[in-house]
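User: two proteins, same treatment. go.

Assistant:
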Amino acid sequence: MSCDKKEWMQYLRTENDYMTFLLEGFHVPETNQNESDDEYLLDVPNKKPRFTKNRNEPAESIDELQEREKIVKNKLEQRKATKGKSKNALTKADRRRMKLEKLEKVQKMQSLKKIMTNEVLKQDQVAKDRKVNHGDEIQKNNEKKSKVFNKEGKLFFSKVEIEGEVKNKNKGKDTNPQANLHKLKSQKKKIRELIESGEKSKAKDEKQKMLWESAFQKTEGIKVKDNEEILKKTIKKRKDIKKKSKEKWNERKKKVADKQAAQQKKREDNINKRKTDKQKSNLKKAIKKGRTF
């Protein structure tokens, strides 16, 4: 022994004192030597001894082999049950978590996309409005300039607008070049006749009167058509347009008539065919019945 006898005795005494203290504290009754200990023991059923042989050793009997098989099957079933449950539970939780995360990401992306598109649309609209307003201002300025000034930059009196003046909507709608040409020719003829007769002052006054009349018409916004060549060209152009439209109309009428004639012919042919087919069928039936013609 590593320790001394006195030390060992001292250790045993301390342990004894500690045990007596515990027994007194928990009120453990003293044992009676005459009483048997069997009545205090629990009834334990007789269990078969667990199989403790090595797996590699062969079974001694069929019962032992069946017992081994049952044990292995039970173990496998337990493993499968526990494994499947844990895996399924984990996968479901993971899937649910992943699905929620994905939904959150998609919602965030959609909200960001909406915000960005709205911002872009707003900026585009603002830019368009600015562009339109700027373009309208430029156009208005150009229109004002073009109305008042000619190409050389000089003031064009016929286009000066007077405030408070009521504009007539039907002004400048003289669209009969034939009448304008006839009027112009008659005026020129009158002036020429006055010059030929020797009344040059009257011819001059008439010419001045014509010029003043055209000037007043221009100030009122009426388009004066006093150019003989342009009037002749417009008359010729209108005649050509009328001629072309007339030709087109005649061609269309001809096409419609031809189509109607073709349809009528087809109808008549179909009627005649039906008649001949009916006659042939009647003839065949009569021949079958023994009739002769």
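Protein 2:
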Amino acid sequence: MVEQQAPWLQVVKMLVAIVVSWVASSLLLGTELPIFAAIAALLVVAPSVHQSIGKGLERSAGVLGGVVLAWLASLTLPTGPLVVLAVTLVAVLVARLLRLAPMAANQLPISAMILLALGAGAGPLFGFERVVETLIGAACALLINLVVVPPVQHEPAERAMRETAYAVADAYDRVAAALASHDAVDGERLLADARALRAHVQRTRAAMDALEESTRLNLRARALRERIARDERLLLTLTVLVNRVIGMSRTVADRFDASVADDPIVHRVGTEARRIAHGVRMLVDRHALEDGRTTTMPALDGPALTTPIAVPQPHPTHWVLIGALLEDVRQARESLEADGAGE
């Protein structure tokens, strides 16, 4: 999986945080090279305010541990490259034994190594100043993340939701086409395509989790609460629809043959599958209109969902096939109607 680059806004915020923390540390502490402040600012500026606070606490804990370890080493051991190497290795082991968070575990040996290399033996104030320097850098980064347009990861979540919804709709269209086919149906391919929708749902779930994370302690998130709750309901609906279309695809793969393509009940099921597909697209497009975004979905004559399918009597041969399809259609209809697609 290829990691996405940080957006330019995030890069600019990192640059500003580094400069501000450098200047602030120089003015407050009189440090010529406030390296720890710059590193803290670089690491603490995160995609969300909540993450920035967490990173700041973790990094500060790691720096404090590294400073203490380096200070003790400078008081008891002679200076030299082997001492720096030994203390760095000990710091890695200490971080592992204490089960520190990843950022704190990485920062502890880094801080110890840098402090010894820069001259921790210069006195106890040297280590204390590095702690203060780190706190200044973390505070500057957090302040900038609060003030400079705190990012809310809503667009990636909306994009993932829309892609998933249209993929689900396409799957129902494929089932409808298979039910109307008088030729042999590649049931295994149909089922594999339906099962692939689970990956779409997982990606959308991850995008929604990132959105939720970005709204914590974020003042801009208040206006999005209703939209986030609505999108959570939509994701739940899509999850149900994915399970149902997988069931329909499995039924087609296991039991369908072209001889039932002309059966009126099977024909109704196919029609309903197409209307479910349309209902899904209509639902996400309606959300787009509510959010002020444009949509180009063509209109479909008739209601999104028709009345429930009535079966006068079971099919003498394919009653299992038809019964399974009808049950999946029923549950899909109920899920869509609960989310307002049938309005």
